[in-house]
Amino acid sequence: MGRTVVVLGGGISGLAASYHLSRAPCPPKVMLGGSWLQTLEASGCVLSQELFQQRAQEAAATQLGLKEMPSHCLVHLHKNCIPQYTLGHWQKLESARQFLTAHRLPLTLAGASYEGVAVNDCIESGRQAAVSVLGTEPNS
User: Fold this and answer.
1) How many Å separate Cα 20 from the centre of its chain?
2) How far apart are CA 77 and CA 49, in angstroms?
3) How far apart are alpha carbons 49 and 8 in whole angstroms?
4) What totals of helices (H) and strands (E) does the chain contain, helices first?
5) Hey, which of 85, 115, 133, 135 has its CA 20 to 30 A from 79?
6) What is the pLDDT of residues 89-100, one digit of tens each?
7) Neighbours of 33 (CB within 10 A)
8) Burial of 11 per CB tally in 10 Å (0-12, 13-18, 19+)
9) How far apart are CA 5 and CA 70, in angstroms?
10) Cα 85 vs. chain centroid, distance in angstroms?
11) pTM score, two decimals?
12) What are the two backbone dihedrals, phi and then psi, of residue 21, each rounded to the nearest 5 degrees?
């Protein structure tokens, strides 16, 4: 069975994921989104299953050299499932932290909304919040 793997807007980690998924024993998944999807929506483009399949196949051909058509394709659209920070996010975050400190409010910011959306970012955010609240590093 032919395989098609595409990660648009995935950067280096996306390319690494593509490489490994293309060699996986089970059929890999195609992921499209981010600013690419936002640009399509802003232009008034109709977001159809056919469009997503066509774009995925085009990207697989140009990015990975996979020209073979997939034997079957399922398209699911999950809008807004991965947070993306807006322009000025870091400045707003710093301003909020300064406000909390200046007013001595007992609030600690942690989670995907602040310092990173990946699981490891969220874990580190929680660890830093615990250190902030407890005033010390954990023993482990």
Assistant:
1) 18
2) 8
3) 16
4) 5, 0
5) 115
6) 999 999 999 999
7) 20
8) exposed
9) 10
10) 11
11) 0.46
12) -65, -30
